[in-house]
Amino acid sequence: VCCLLLLLVFVLMLLFRFLFVFLAIAVLRCDSRPGDVEVIVSDEAGQRLSVQPQQLSWEKKTAPSSQVLSIDINQQFQTIHGFGGSFLRSGALTLNQLPLEKQDEVLKKLFDPEEGAGFTVGKVPIGACDYCPLTASPNETRWWSYRKNPLEPFSLGPDLEEPGGTVPYVMRAVQYIQQSKTPLWLQSTIDYPPRWMLEGDLPGATVNPLFYGPLAQYYLDFVQHFEDASGVPIHYLSLFNEPIDSYTNITTAAIGDLLVNHVFPTLSEAGS
Description:
The protein is of the alpha/beta class. The protein is 32% helix and 10% strand. The chain folds into two domains: 2-56, no CATH class; 84-270, TIM Barrel, CATH 3.20.20.80.
């Protein structure tokens, strides 16, 4: 059991170290006293898997009978396509700080079906997200987009370029996934639409209904441009990340209107 736990911890450490570089993770040690944990942290201040003093402890309690979960292993439902994580600008930037041979080692441990975790599912943000610690360029705001104004042509821009681009990041992962003859399943979502689509052009405002059509086209442009650039299709599209508490404060009713009357018709007409 300890060996299996150590293997799982090793895989999780790699995943969070390179894909979610600002998360702190608690790792249970098999050789510690029962109930003790240690905290391992990677952060923007420069800590890299730094072991923190033991700050947490567990105590055994009896769970209420109302919270008992029974699972029938003989009853099957939908098929799980696979497991994975997010392809983020912060992850690509961190990965590219390593020597090339170490980069390959990390990618192999994450995506290789024989010698790694065999991840086959990924999430790609549409534009900037909260795990984009750096702007696309010195003249950009943090929440950069692929179209700065209604007249500007769509361009993936920073997502095409090293060291932080998600397109080359995905393409490198595919080199290992292809060995299993399993496709990489990608899901995309948006944290923040282009600012000019928002009510009053204000950060945090909801999407102006007048721009539901252009936003639907924005989703389609991303799906098409990303596949053209990477060779990998976007299989799933989520209109907003954290829809109940999104950066745009859009209501679920408005999302339904956007989906049914704009996004779905636009994608269907394009054959996407």
